Amino acid sequence: MMRPPRQKWLLVLVAILLLTNIATLSIYWIKKPNRDEGRDAGKKRMGQFMVDQMRFDAAQEAAYWKLRDSVMAIQKPVMDSMRAAKKNFFDLLNQPNPSDSVLVQRSNEIAELQKKLDIVTFHHFQKVRAICRPDQLQKFDTVIKEIVNRMTPFRRKQ
Questions:
Q1: What angle do CA 117, 93, 87 make, to 5 degrees?
Q2: How far apart are CA 106 and CA 81, in angstroms?
Q3: What is the DSSP letter of 155?
Q4: Residue-wise pLDDT tens digits, 61-89
Q5: Residue in 83, 82, 70, 67 with CA at minimum distance from that of residue 131
Q6: What is the pLDDT of residue 146?
Q7: DSSP state, residue 96
C-alpha cells in the first residue's frame, strides 16, 4: 500500500522541529553561566557603567578599578556575614515562639552589618569622587543617584 506524500512531509517537518529544539536546548545548557559568575558580571557591569558615564581618562579608569577592587575585597566578608546573620534570623521561624528580645538582637546584628556596608560604600564613592576632574563632578552627582537606585531595587518610588 502506498502512503500519500503529505504524511511524508509531515514526518520530515516534525523531525526538523525536534532537531532544532534539541539544538536550542543544548546551546542554552552549554552557554548558561553559573550563579556566581552572573553576580560578578553584574558587579562588573555596574563598574563599567560608572566608567562609561563619567568618561574617565586612562589614568582615572585605572584608579577607579583599583578602588573598586579594594572596596569589593572589604565588602565581600561583610556581605557573607550579613547572609549568615539573615539565615540565623530566619532560622528562628523553626522555633515555636521566639522571644522578641531574640528577634531584636538578631535583627540588630543584621542592621550593624548593613550600616558597616553602607559606610564602606559611602567612603568608596568619596574616593571615586576625589579622582574626578572638576568638570566631571556634576555628572558624578547625577550618576551616583542612579547607582544608588540600582543598589536598592526593591524600594518603590512614591
A1: 30
A2: 12
A3: P
A4: 999 999 999 999 999 999 999 999 999 99
A5: 67
A6: 85
A7: S
DSSP states of 103-131: HHHHHHHHHHHHHHHHHHHHHHHHHHHHT
Which amino acid would we find at residue 68?
R
In whole angstroms, what is the distance from residue 46 CA to residue 138 CA? 19
Q: Which three cell numbers stand for residue 15?
A: 523531525
Binning the chain into helix, strand and coil, the percentages to the nearest 5 are 85, 0, 15
- Measured between alpha carbons, how far is 18 from 38 in angstroms, rounded to an integer? 30
pLDDT one-digit tens code per residue, 113-122: 999 999 999 9
pLDDT, residue 61, reads 93
Q: Model pTM? A: 0.67
Three-class SS of residue 101? Answer: helix
Contacts of 50 (CB under 8 A, 6+ apart): 64, 128, 143, 147
Beta carbons of 71 and 84 less than 8 angstroms apart: no
